[in-house]
Amino acid sequence: MKRNTWQREAVRQALGTSEGFVSAQALYSALRDTGSPIGLATVYRALSDLAVEGEADSLQQEGESLYRACTPHTHHHHLICRNCGLTVEIEADAVESWAASVAAQHGFTQPSHVVDVFGLCAACSRG
Asked: What is the pTM of this model?
């Protein structure tokens, strides 16, 4: 069930202005810094809903869920810098073909997958 409340819209907008992936705690702090009365539990719930509905990407890093705004209903993959969090959406046609092939070999249909490649971006590799 999609809940379009002012809180959800505030979370969506704050996420859209964040660079890279961000934790619920960090987003909550940013919202509070702007004077928003939004609660932490509401931020968690809104981020979870946005991820389920395809409006946010989520990943686990060191046991914490991180979120990033994305284009809804598009399948994509990421390169993510382990140091600074820079995130780049990438095409991965070979992965798409491989996933479909492996699924078919085992009698599976409608395969889905998530691919996040972690490394160091060019700036962090130099430093």
From this structure: 0.68
